Amino acid sequence: MMRKTKWKKHSILPGFGLSVGFTTLYVSLLVLLPLAMIFVNTASMSWSGFWAAVTEPRVIASYRLSFGASFAAACINVVFGVLIAWVLVRYSFPGKRVIDGLVDLPFALPTAVAGIALTTLYTETGWVGQFLPFKVAFTPIGITIALTFIGLPFVVRMVQPVLQNFDQETEEASAILGAGRMQTFFKVIVPEIIPAALTGFALAFARALGEYGSVVFIAGNMPMKTEITPLMIMTKLEQYDYEGATAIAAVMLVISFVLLLFINGLQWWTNRKYSHS
Amino acid sequence: MAGHIPLQYGSKQAVKQTAREPFMIRFLLITVALAFLFLFLLLPLAAIFIKAFEQGVGLYIASITDPDALSAIKLTLLVVVLTVPLNALFGLAAAWAITKFEFRGKSLLITLIDLPFAISPVIAGLVFVLLFSTHGLFGDFLFQHDIKILFAVPGIVLATLFVTFPFVARELIPLMQAQGSAEEEASLTLGANGWKTFWLVTLPNIKWGLLYGVILCNARAVGEFGAVSVVSGHIRGLTNTMPLHIEILYNEYQFSAAFAVASLMSILAIVTLILKNIVEWKSGQHG
After folding, report:
1. What ipTM did this prediction achieve?
2. How confident is the model at residue A76 (pLDDT cuts 50, 70, 90)?
3. Chain B CA closest to residue A242
């Protein structure tokens, strides 16, 4: 037998060269080469220059804000995402199909449009802002609201199919064995949806970290106070400080890669957990 | 990753209502969920249309027929026409390569396809600045040959290609994986050639998934803001797409005009959602 180390298994289907070749070329030119530029340019900086650029007080303040607001938004999304998924799967009420379709609005609506709409609602004279005792627009609270908006569909769409495929007999069994409804929820249902909810959380968090369009309008962009990290990259670029922008981008990219690995791990866990059914 | 909505196959069946909560708790949960959705989804959407018509229909029409607005709409359409077919083609090729063959480096390829979803749109724009600005990798070459990519239409197209390119592939890969290759193999055994097999066997099987991916790709291509904002240079009438035009109007306190253009994009978003639901329903029927 030919037992050479082949890099491709035999297949009778045609088009291997064409499809793999085109895909690889496209990915290399459009993703690999441009992204490599970040690391090439960062590598050409001196270590002290790089460190100074990424630890500037304004930039540090932006990390703190971006992480804090994204984390808060992802937490809100987990709580309300699970609730919305639960309500959509388990209960029936008028207009349910429309509401179900509307959940994806944050993915379909351009971020800039969402940004100006939310800002208008939450300024001190806005429809919602005027009833609130504290300032929302141009504060970290406003940023959190914008990030909650754009991350909303992730948790709902991750948890919904899990609840749909959930075998209700386990719930019945739990009830027959004497558990109360709350006990059944926390001991039977929650463990089942945790991987999906966590994946949704991570996806919403990752998206929120990089989000720009919906945040810049409601943030007000005050130095040290309401500047998110993507905006810092933008500001550096506008000042033609390409090195500074690239250094911050490199930090964000590394964080994105780590999150991506984490999410892939979560998804692997999820698939393993749900594949038995 | 971010921005990706998996297509939900199969019809949504009502769940058995054997183990359920008392009426009051159900009512409370539904109310809280609906209040949250009203506050976060419905209210912003309503605000866009109400603000757009606040100063009358006359101003609304004037805002969307303004020469700068019209050129922004034209540029956005041009970008969509260039990027969506290219990325659909890429998605088909990538899905074919990944689902029909076993080869080394496959998981690496899948990760690379996912990457643009994980990256901030601002960084997606930045990388093209690093490639094509005067100090960039190709800066000298472009300057000598007088080719403009940055702060011109090609840069906008490239940045949009980057941020939208996973959509079709992400949709097709799981679908084609689930379908397997048996039908294609049968077709080839019966004497059809590769292209014929693709057109007559594969394509009809994946048409709804493909359409779904194209719809999502299209929505993102129209609305992309961050990446395009970095590479566009904001030249009015030349390199302003619709979202950038909205930003300029808003920052100039022309709120009604900004919301008028925003309302056009919101209509598109609603159409996208409706199409998405139709496709989900259709794929549930045939799937």
Report:
1. 0.89
2. very high
3. B130
Q: Which residues contact B56 (CB under 8 A, 6 or more apart)?
A: none
Q: Under 8 Å CB-to-CB from A26, ≥6 apart: which residues? A: B90, B93, B94, B165
How far apart are the C-alpha atoms of B283 and B208, rounded to whole Å?
6
Q: How does residue B15 score in pLDDT terms, banded at 50, 70 and 90? A: very low
Virtual torsion, Cα B224, B229, B230, B233, nearest 10 deg = 140
Helix axes A16-27, B106-118, angle to 10 degrees: 40
Report the sign of the C-alpha dihedral through residues B241, B243, B249, B254, in that order. Answer: positive
**Distance from chain centroid for Cα B109:** 21
Binding-face residues of A in 140-199 toward B, CB within 8 A: 145, 148-149, 152-153, 157, 160-161, 164, 168, 171-172, 174-175, 181, 184
Tokens 């034209």 — which residue?
B74
**B186 close to A (CB below 8 A):** no
For residue B247, give the nearest of A62, A215, A236 by alpha carbon.
Answer: A215
pTM of the model: 0.90
Output the CA torsion sign for A232, A233, A234, A238.
positive
Contact A260, A205 (CB under 8 A): no
As a three-state string, the secondary structure of B128-155 is: HHHHHCCCCCCHHHHHHCCCCCCCCHHH
**DSSP secondary structure code for residue A273 in this structure:** H
CB pairs under 8 A between A and B: 306
Distance (Å, rounded) from C-alpha B287 to C-alpha B151? 45
CB contact under 8 A, B242 and A107: no
Residue whose C-alpha is closest to residue A97's, from B12, B182, B255, B171 = B12
Would you say residue A274 has pLDDT above 80? no
CB A234 within 8 A of CB A244: no
Q: What is the pLDDT of residue B51?
A: 94
Cα A55–chain centre separation: 25
What is the SS3 assignment for B103?
strand
Of the residues A109, A119, A183, A189, the best mutation for testing chain B's interface (the one with the most B CB atoms within 10 Å of its CB) is: A109
CA B254/CA B246 separation, integer angstroms: 9
- Pick the closest to residue B203 from B166, B167, B176, B182 (CA basis): B176
Average of pLDDT values for B163-170? 92
Angle at alpha carbon of residue A123, lines to A121 and A126, rounded to 5° = 45
DSSP state of A130: G
Cβ partners under 8 Å of residue A112, min gap 6: A213, A214, A217, B223, B225, B243, B244, B246, B247, B262
Q: How far is CA A167 from CA A100, A136, A197, B41, B263, in A?
A: 22, 43, 18, 31, 43
